[in-house]
Amino acid sequence: MCVCPPGGEPDMQMYLDKARRWLLVPGRTLAWVGVAVTALLVISVPADNWDQIVFAMMSLLLCSLLGRSEGDLPRLMMIALSMVSSGRYMYWRLTHTLSFDHIADCVLGIGLLLAETYSFVVLLLGYVQVLWPLHRQPAPLPADPGQWPTVDVLVPTYNEPLELVKTTLMAALALDWPADKIKIYLLDDGRREAFRELCESLGVEYMIRGNNRHAKAGNINAALARTQGEFVAIFDCDHMATRSFLQLTMGWFLRDRRLALMQTPHYYFSPDPMERNLGTFGRIPNEGELFYGLLQDGNDLWDATFFCGSCAVLRRTHLESVGGVATETVTEDAHTALKLHRRGYRSAYLAIPQASGLATESLSSHVGQRIRWARGMIQIFRIDNPLLGKGLTLAQRLCYLNAMLHFLYGLPRLIFLTAPLASLLFGLHVIHTSAVMLLAYAGPHVAMAYMANHRNQGRFRHLLWNEVYETVLAWYILLPTLLALINPKLGKFNVTSKGGLVASSYFDAKIARPYVYLLLVNLLGILAGMWHLYHSPNAGFTQTMWINVFWTMYNIAVTGAAIAAARESKQMRGAHRVEALDMTVALRLPDDTISQARVTDFSVQGMAVETRNYELMPGLQVQLGLSDGHETRFLPAVVVNDRGGSCFGLSYETLTSEQQTWLVNCTFACADQWARRWGTHEAEQPFRSIHGVAMASLRGLGHMLSHFLMPRRRRASLGEGKA
């Protein structure tokens, strides 16, 4: 039974009142106009060199002091300081740093300015989005389960492996909900006989359709026409629900009849390719943690939570009123949420992992998935622009706009990675100013944006590593997003493969190729810069050249780390092992002796246990007693190895479907295993990140050199150009 958090029943008004104390209390238009006018005056006031330097130093000092203070007011003041400092920088760039005397300077200078303007707009929209994360808590259900609504659990699949889908269905079977009020459906667009037989053996409804139109969205819509539950819970076929999923998500629907969507995080227990190849899994937040850990929580304040296609519950009547899941774009989930919001329905976000899944296995698959997301969001921007049309509040429009603009970062990122080369290689001046003035304006802009974002995002994004992640994807999302801007109908839905293996380590030269070229041209820029410095005509020229050299060195570090991400690590486990947290099992030995053992890791194929007072010999037959908190059942297993330190690896013997379901029920369907890992990263430590990215960059250089110095036949045998 879902219980209310300490402090009584959650009340949405309580959350909103807390936010309004800081955000909405001024209330009067005149007060906000006064704040805006003051900010504009500070942004536009002219200053000579020393005045700007003093202003920059005072702003940085104040921002640094606020960063050491606890509470929401210092955090909001840091955001305000950053906005003013960045606004001042952009005003100065527009009014003092452009030259129209030479065509090359003009074109490249405007190009860089447009990239900076894009970054500035995204920065401001990001501040709005995370101004006050809501931190919604679960709402309790009625004490009488007879009052709980009916739910259809939909699991769409197309070409995924049987064992992967089987585990997801077993987790769905463990959902803690009255049996007469829940039905589980496998929606098989692959129309495979083995999957039908699996559903029959598990007692799951098997559903197919006559065509595969509109891919996943069409599959779900076809199921909506043939099911009747008051609510639908949707899980991708690699997302295993926890037992408590419905009990934690359904309460708000009963309190708010306008609520159409409850979204929960997508949590992955396996490393994504960048985490695995860069060795950052468990240490550095991945790119998805910012969205699910902070942005969605921030969206919740503005009633702008996005549907993410899985790990979510939707109210059937509201979903059907907008025509079901959207089919006009390849990001059907976000577009569906936009349609619901336009109708005046509400959404909610619960930042508690209630399902776990598999990340993509290879970098090429990962890139393909992000390409689809990027293209789809730009399609929505073109055909159902959130700035236009009726039904959305201003805050909702801005949240959607930021989500869509984010995926246009490909071109600006590439501009920043090449901009200093204009000066180093060709002697062009894309920013017409002195080095001192550039540092006086750009320094506080960059530094305070970092400090404010570090304060807001520290546990969910490490900014320097995020530069690496975006660099890896920048080249590949550039063309799809630009084409989608021109013609949103171009492109098709591609399925992201999951559950595959990487048979051997190899360097994916095809994926790395754009960044190898970028790295080489930046190295050439460094050599040219050194030559210019040696022949420097004056101090002003030297200062400007040093800025470009340091900028290029930074770009080399980032592109080198991006190349390191293309070194695919071997992955031969058929089932990913998950480190267990405070998990014990009862171990029954052949002589019927039962003792407790601590689980160190588990998978769907086996687990490792740590014993204290005895040793287990390889080949020994044992029984593992797994408990769901109420009941313990024993499963047959065999000791397969001695890991040392009283730790032993065990493999499950042949399990019945019922035993496999119980195994999933007590491991992957246990919410504590995921919730306790959520948001536990330390805030970024800048020097540690610099060191980590630098080391990754050196590894990238090593991988690149060893690959291209290797005989061509040997490269081909190791998988050159896999994608």
From TrEMBL:
Membrane topology: Multi-pass membrane protein
Entry EC number(s): 2.4.1.12
InterPro entries for this protein: Cell_synth_A, Cellulose_synth, Glyco_trans_2-like, Glycosyltr_2/OpgH_subfam, Nucleotide-diphossugar_trans, PilZ_domain
Pfam families for the chain: Cellulose_synt, Glycos_transf_2, PilZ
Annotated transmembrane regions: 22-43, 107-128, 414-443, 515-534, 546-566
Family from the record: Belongs to the glycosyltransferase 2 family.
PANTHER family: CELLULOSE SYNTHASE CATALYTIC SUBUNIT A [UDP-FORMING] (PTHR43867:SF2)
Protein name listed in UniProt: Cellulose synthase catalytic subunit [UDP-forming]
